[in-house]
Every structure is written in structure tokens, then in C-alpha cells.
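We were asked to recover a plausible sequence for a given structure. The inputs and outputs are reproduced exactly as logged, with field labels preserved.

PROBLEM: sequence recovery
POSITIONS: 141
GIVEN STRUCTURE:
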């Protein structure tokens, strides 16, 4: 019971202290594309990508829109429709590995979700994190 009152007192004190978090500088987010396939903004929110397996296999390199930065590493995971989660696979560089490409090619039903996360880019010699990508693989766009 004593702990509860201590917690309540600390919570009350913290609510009375002004917060400047909204004015704190935030780390810039770098958008990443898969070749020509890029996420976009709709009504101020980042929208995932819906594309086909063929387009993914034609665009196996991660890029950034201008200004161009080099993707250093990322993790790739996939949730094929009706199957178990696959991954994460850690990738060094900016290209899908031959193992990942074979995995995508081997899907009987080329539908599912692809998660590209933990993306590190080289921004003028400094490692920076990029926004994760969600790609929905569909039969048609």
C-alpha cells in the first residue's frame, strides 16, 4: 500500500512538470524504396506498398529517393498467405540475397506481406536508421 502512495505522488509530480518533448529535435526518417516501388503518403500518413511478386523480383535493390543514400543493411521477413512467418533474415548491403529471391520465387501462392526493417543507411558517412517498409504482395496491383 505504501508503494502505491509513493507511485501516486511521483505520478502527480511528473504531471505538474512542463514537458518540452514536442519541441525536442527528432531523428530524421529516411524513406527507402524497393527499386522503383516506393511507399507514399496519403492524408499525412505513410502508406505501405501493394505490388506483385514479379515487380518485387524485378526490383531487388533497396534505394532511397533523392537525395540518394546507400543502404548498408536491413532485415527481411515474410508472412506468406496461409503460411508461417519466415525470417527475419539479416542482409548486409542493399540487395535481396539469392536465398530470399528463391524463397519468394518458390511460393505457390504469391500473396502475403513482406517486412523490411532495421534498415541502416549511410548518410554522408554517418549511419542512420530508415523507416521500415511493409509490402503487400498481391496477385494484381
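RECOVERED SEQUENCE:
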Amino acid at each position: 500500500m505504501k508503494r502505491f502512495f509513493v507511485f501516486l505522488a511521483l505520478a502527480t509530480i511528473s504531471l505538474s512538470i512542463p514537458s518540452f518533448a514536442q519541441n525536442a529535435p527528432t531523428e530524421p526518417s529516411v524513406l527507402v524504396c524497393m527499386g522503383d516501388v516506393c511507399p507514399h503518403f496519403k492524408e499525412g500518413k505513410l502508406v505501405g506498398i501493394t505490388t506483385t511478386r514479379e515487380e518485387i523480383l524485378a526490383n531487388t535493390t533497396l534505394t532511397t529517393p533523392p537525395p540518394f543514400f546507400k543502404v548498408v543493411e536491413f532485415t527481411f521477413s515474410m508472412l506468406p498467405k496461409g503460411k508461417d512467418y519466415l525470417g527475419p533474415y539479416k542482409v548486409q548491403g542493399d540487395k535481396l540475397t539469392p536465398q530470399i529471391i528463391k524463397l519468394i520465387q518458390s511460393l505457390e501462392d504469391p500473396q502475403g506481406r513482406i517486412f523490411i526493417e532495421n534498415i541502416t543507411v549511410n548518410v554522408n558517412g554517418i549511419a542512420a536508421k530508415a523507416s521500415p517498409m511493409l509490402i503487400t504482395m498481391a496477385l494484381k496491383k
